[in-house]
Design a protein that fits this description.
rod-shaped
Length: 108
């Protein structure tokens, strides 16, 4: 091969190498860009999911509070009714006691 042909082949090889390097850099940049876009999408979806989870948790907490509130109110009403019945029974006993004491005081 002549010197010119060898230099021409070297130049073609250098151009091919440069072209391959440029393509590799372009592919690398595209992959980085795609990865960043995917990361942004993942973060966005994670934010949406966490917001939904927070809302679900809040709703669940509200429901538990409502159930507990209703249970406490029901227990309170039952206790109040029991106390009223006990008080009524005590009133009857008190009236009986007062009558007995009154009769004892009258007969003495």
């Amino acid at each position: 091969m002549a010197k010119n042909e060898i230099l021409s082949e070297i130049k073609k090889a250098e151009e091919n190498a440069k072209k391959m390097i440029d393509e590799a850099i372009e592919i690398k940049n595209k992959r980085i860009s795609d990865a960043r876009a995917e990361a942004r999408e993942i973060l966005k979806q994670a934010e949406v999911d966490s917001h939904k989870a927070a809302q679900d948790s809040f709703k669940s907490g509200e429901e538990k509070i409502l159930v507990e509130r209703n249970r406490i109110l029901k227990d309170g009403e039952q206790n109040a009714l029991a106390m009223a019945q006990k008080a009524q029974a005590n009133v009857d006993k008190a009236v009986d006691y007062l009558l007995i004491e009154f009769e004892r005081a009258v007969h003495e």
